[in-house]
């Protein structure tokens, strides 16, 4: 029993190399699949994500079923990801084109209240999903959206037309201040009494 928990069956060097290669391959595949895969998971996408780890499991761990081997693989995966993220940030500051190459560029989904149908087709996004996402961010209708973009990381960002934007706390404070000034003026006029 103890032997099976600690005997990795393959060398740590091989396990490290396997983990790094599978990580790089998955990053590349997700990049090639596009932003849509990161934007919203529908049932099909969820099935792929759930099966992906199962599919590559043996490629990462090989014939190893040990506790130590699994923990080592997880540690290598986390370390490689951390290193890669730091390298990405470093390279982005040194060469801004690097981030565009790695992540891609934003895609406009709605412009001036109109769905960009060609872009949606290219990204394989359903109009209903885009409309639902715009509603989650405050738009009642597509016509209320000045611009909605799908960022390289998969988030959908909505900018409402000015007339449709909600008031923030600063706006409320300004209105209250205006109302207080109006009330002061009214009180002053009432104290003076009717003129004439």
Automatic annotation (TrEMBL):
It comes from the Bacteria. InterPro entries: DUF421, UPF0702_alpha/beta_dom_sf. Its main location: membrane. The chain crosses the membrane at residues 16-34, 41-61, 67-87. It is a multi-pass membrane protein. Residues 95-163 form the YetF C-terminal domain. It is found in: Cell membrane. Keywords: Cell membrane, Membrane, Transmembrane, Transmembrane helix. This is YetF C-terminal domain-containing protein. The lineage of its organism: Bacteria, Bacillati, Actinomycetota, Actinomycetes, Catenulisporales. Belongs to the UPF0702 family. It comes from Catenulispora yoronensis. PANTHER family: UPF0702 TRANSMEMBRANE PROTEIN YCAP.
